From TrEMBL:
It is found in: Cytoplasm. The keyword Repeat does not apply. Pfam families: OB_RNB, RNB. It catalyses: Exonucleolytic cleavage in the 3'- to 5'-direction to yield nucleoside 5'-phosphates. Keywords: Cytoplasm, Exonuclease, Hydrolase, Nuclease, RNA-binding. It comes from the Bacteria. It comes from Psychromonas marina. Residues 23-79 form the Cold-shock domain. SUPFAM superfamilies: Nucleic acid-binding proteins. This is Exoribonuclease II. Its EC number is 3.1.13.1. Belongs to the RNR ribonuclease family. RNase II subfamily. Residues 191-521 form the RNB domain. Its main location: cytoplasm.
Length: 657
């Protein structure tokens, strides 16, 4: 009777016109409720029953309902949704089929189109699937309609978490495959024959995609270092389907005991890998380094055929150079290789000293390797400090990339450049004020210049102050990738273009093509202005995938330590209003310590101030902890759905009465 009454419809429309409205983004929580965040920074509570109409990240219009001094948002109109597909687990019980999203922020009533046919098609309870959103609840008013697009992993697959993670971040889960005749596509490029020179590679023991080899000799000026880099651009045609796929991927994805290459495996792990004793197409540069460690003259780039004479690993080389006379049972090189390693070691030490005095050098951080069993579980975490052999390779690659930046700047004024502008423009004044506290005089103009920033970093390095280093790091702008040369402040160089990992990085592959176009004196290679943003986005997705997998594996590995009395040594690397983030020194895991677990009684947490800007935890106007501090922590609990490790202080803060 009232259903199609035009008067009631008009009355309803008039009432709605009088209700305040706001547009914003839906921010869900794992508790069921959420918030509407408007473009002007205001937040309105969305109750659980209303959250069933929307998804995390939706842009919506909403009515703002007032209830006394509280207000809440009632979703009314969908403007856009950033979720079109998501990963979920199938639940098949008592003849009914439903799904549970892997993301705890995605909740709602999901009706599955064709759900009753899934069992006939081989799907089982607990299988992981990719789900496509067909209809949105806010548009239809009857919940969400979805369909199962494909199976991601079987319910009993012990390594399902890998596939779930890459699917969540829309990354490929296997190597690209192309039926392609592997022939050199640039026969017009003259290649020198360096197969007789005793090049060597230094990599991890299990590395398959070896893309750099080294050869060095002394001369009257100092040293002549030849860096040979695998040349996949000799096999991957520009603008081919294979090239487009490599561009889409951007990088090889590395997860514990698992990688997804950017290029087909018969290229990355075979034809382009610098395997011992195999003739390979390479792009090379010869770098002259004087006795002080400075690169002198103009670096020579050229194409070549080379052959790795020795496949070495970091551990053997480090043990040999660090303990040469101590252990008769350890690996030892022959006379020819021994001379190469000692020569490279001497040049590396001088090169590092020169960069320390003239550029910016990062502090060494250990690598953490998660060892997995056949059930996909971590049974050991190796903490591997950066040792002598790592420095040999790193300094050689940094030198080669600096030279490539100069070479592409001089000849092309384009390429794929890693750039960094130093401090964010809106944080320069804060940087000046902070430095003044440590008697380092500066100003905005000076810190905005490469020379001024480099000098400042050299001054702060002498202080060896971890707290200051952390504070300064939080004032930095984000690193970027550009198609034209720009300065790289945090390296302390005028330009930096990586080309030493073309098997693993699409930007390096592009730089190979540009360098070869200079050698051939052609002008047929151009770098899109959009390539930087595309590579940045691809790298961001990969880092999120790496984070998610590591969180899960660490949570499994440490689950037996929950509520134990085991004390971990940890470094504070972030302080936010809600608490403290720390990194465990022995295994690399990160714990979040809420403010309520910084003291014995959670009720006392209100008297603790976690100051994000100062990077300090303050009690009664006294600094109790700060960024860079090494503290003892314990594992309190694990948030299973997110893999977040929640810690507590082993020695709680004392809050005065």
């Amino acid at each position: 009777m009232f259903q199609n009454n035009p008067l009631l419809s008009q009355l309803k429309e008039k009432i709605q016109q009088d209700i305040p409205k706001r547009q914003g983004i839906v921010k869900a929580t794992d508790k069921g409720y959420g918030f509407l965040e408007t473009d002007k920074g205001k937040r309105f509570f969305i109750p659980p029953n209303e959250m069933k109409k929307v998804l995390h990240g939706d842009r919506i219009n909403a009515f703002i309902r007032e209830n006394g001094d509280k207000s809440s948002a009632e979703p009314n109109q969908l403007k856009s949704s950033e979720i079109d597909t998501f990963v979920a687990r199938l639940v098949m019980q008592q003849g009914k089929v439903s799904i549970k999203a892997n993301n705890p922020l995605i909740k709602g009533f999901f009706k599955i189109q064709g759900g009753q046919k899934l069992k006939e098609n081989g799907y089982q309870d607990g299988d992981w699937v990719s789900v496509k959103l067909l209809k949105h609840a806010l548009n239809e008013g009857k919940g969400f309609l979805v369909e199962v697009a494909e199976k991601i992993a079987d319910a009993n697959d012990p390594f399902a978490y890998r596939l779930i993670t890459v699917a969540t971040h829309k990354l490929p889960n296997k190597a690209p495959e192309f039926n392609h005749p592997w022939q050199v596509i640039d026969p017009e490029l003259e290649r020198q024959d360096l197969t007789k020179l005793p090049f060597f590679t230094i990599d991890g023991i299990n590395t398959q995609d070896m893309d750099d080899a080294l050869y060095i000799e002394s001369n009257e000026n100092g040293w002549l270092l030849t860096v040979a880099i695998s040349d996949p651009s000799a096999y991957v045609p520009e603008d081919s389907e294979m090239d487009a796929e490599a561009k889409r991927r951007g990088f090889t994805l590395y997860l514990p005991n698992f990688n997804v290459p950017m290029l087909p495996r018969d290229l990355s792990d075979s034809l382009c890998s610098l395997k011992e004793g195999e003739k390979r197409a390479t792009l090379c540069c010869q770098i002259e380094i004087n006795h002080d460690g400075e690169i002198i003259g103009e670096t020579k780039f050229f194409a070549a055929w080379m052959k790795s004479h020795y496949r070495l690993n970091y551990c053997d080389v480090s043990n040999y150079l660090e303990n040469e006379s101590e252990n008769t049972n350890q690996w030892k090189p022959n006379r020819q290789l021994s001379e190469q390693l000692h020569t490279l070691s001497a040049a590396t030490l001088k090169r590092l000293a020169w960069r320390t005095a003239n550029n910016v050098v990062f502090k060494n951080q250990p690598d953490y390797t998660l060892k997995l069993n056949n059930k996909g579980e971590v049974y050991e975490v190796l903490c591997e400090p950066r040792r002598t052999a790592n420095r040999l390779v790193e300094e050689s690659m940094i030198a080669a990339n600096i030279c490539a930046g100069q070479y592409l700047t001089k000849h092309k004024q384009q390429g794929v450049f890693n750039v960094h502008s130093g401090f964010a423009s809106d944080r320069l004044n804060k940087a000046v004020e902070l430095l003044a506290e440590y008697q380092i005089e500066s100003d905005v103009e000076t810190l905005s210049s490469l020379a001024g920033y480099t000098k400042m970093r050299q001054q702060t390095a002498l202080l060896n102050n971890c707290y200051l280093d952390h504070r300064l790091r939080k004032l930095l702008a984000y690193a970027d990738t550009k198609s034209t040369p720009q300065e790289h402040f945090t390296m302390g160089v005028e330009s930096y273009a990586t080309w030493t990992s073309p098997i693993r990085k699409y930007g390096d592959l592009l730089n190979h093509r540009l360098i070869k176009s200079i050698l051939l004196e052609t002008d047929d290679v151009h770098i899109s202005e959009e390539i930087g943003a595309q590579l940045n986005e691809a790298r961001k997705s990969q880092r999120l995938a790496e984070r998610d997998v590591n969180n899960l594996l660490y949570s499994q590995y440490l689950k037996d330590q929950v509520q134990s009395q085991w004390r971990f040594k940890a470094e504070i690397f972030d302080i936010i209003k809600a608490g403290v983030r720390v990194r465990i020194q022995e295994n690399g895991a990160t714990f979040f310590i809420p403010a309520s677990l910084l003291c014995k009684d959670p009720k006392e947490a209100k008297q603790i101030t976690c100051d994000r800007e100062l990077g300090r935890v303050i009690v009664a106007e006294q600094t109790e902890m700060q960024l860079g501090d090494i503290i003892d922590v314990m594992l309190n609990n694990i948030k299973v759905e997110t893999g977040q490790l929640i810690g507590r202080l082993a020695d709680p803060l004392v809050v005065p009465e």
